C-alpha cells in the first residue's frame, strides 16, 4: 500500500510527484464510488473532522463536508464569525478547544498565509489547508489537475495558461506548482499590475496578450478578480479589464483550435468569462465541482492512513 510522504496537506510545495499521482489515482476509485447508487463507504467511520473556516466559503466548504460524509466521518463545522474568535480568542486556543473534543483532523481556511503551517507545528491532528490568504489552495490545484487529466489524459507536455489576477490568487500558485510537478508547461496572462515579479523565478512564462495566450494553450484556467484582497486600483475599471482579458464566445470561436475552459469559481459572469463560454461544451467548470468531492475524499482518506478505498 502506497502512502503519502506527508502528515498534513499544507500546500503543493511540500508534495512530491508520487504524492500527487497517488492522490489522483485514489480519486479515481472515489469518483466511481460517488457515481454508484450507494455513495457512502465506511472508510473514516471512527474519524472526527473539524472544518474551521475563518473566511467565507461556499464550494470548498460544501465539497469538504460532502467528501467527509461520503467517507462516514463525524463532522464538526466551525465558523469564526459566530465563535469566540470574535471575542479575541487565539487560533491555537480555538483549535486546542476543538481538539479537546477528540478531533482527529482539521480542515482550515484562514486569511493569513502560513496559518496552516503554523498550526501544524503546534497540534497533533492532521491539518488540511483549505486556503490561506493569497498563498496556497492545494485541493483546488489537485482537483484542477484531476479534471485536466480526465479530459486530456497525461498532463506531461500539456500547455496550460492561467489568466487573471495572479497576484492575489492562492489558486494560481498551487496550480503552477502542481502542474509543473506533473510535467505540464504553464504560462500566466493578465495585466502587468496583477502579475507578481517573482513569477518568472518559478519557471513560468508571462504573456500579456490574451489572444496569443489562448492560441498557445490546450487549457485556459480563468481566474476571477479578487477585489476583496486589493487595497489599491490595479486597472481602470472592470469594464476595461473585461475588454482586454475577458473571454467571450466570439474570441473563443475565432481561435485556430478548440481549447478547454476552466474556472475555480465563483464566476464573475461578464467580467473574466461570459455566460455562453462558462456554459459551453468546451467548459469543464461543473466537472471541476464534481471532481472536487472525489479528490477531497482521496486526500482525507490518504492522510488518515486508509488501506482500502472501496
Offer a few descriptive terms.
310 residues, alpha/beta, Rossmann fold, 2 domains, 5-stranded parallel sheet, 11 helices, 37% helix, 15% strand
Describe the structure in your own words.
Helix 4 (115-120) links the parallel strand 3 (105-110) and strand 4. Helix 1 packs across helix 5 (138-152), helix 1 (17-34) packs across helix 11 (285-303) and helix 5 (138-152) crosses helix 6 (170-181). The protein has eleven helices and nine strands. A five-stranded parallel sheet has the order 7-6-5-8-9. With 310 residues, the chain is of the alpha/beta class. It has helices at residues 17-34, 59-70, 91-99, 115-120, 138-152, 170-181, 210-216, 238-245, 249-254, 275-278, 285-303, and strands at 48-53, 74-79, 105-110, 126-132, 159-163, 185-189, 205-207, 219-222, 260-262. It folds into two domains: 12-136 and 289-303, Rossmann fold (3-Layer(aba) Sandwich), CATH 3.40.50; 138-288, Rossmann fold (3-Layer(aba) Sandwich).
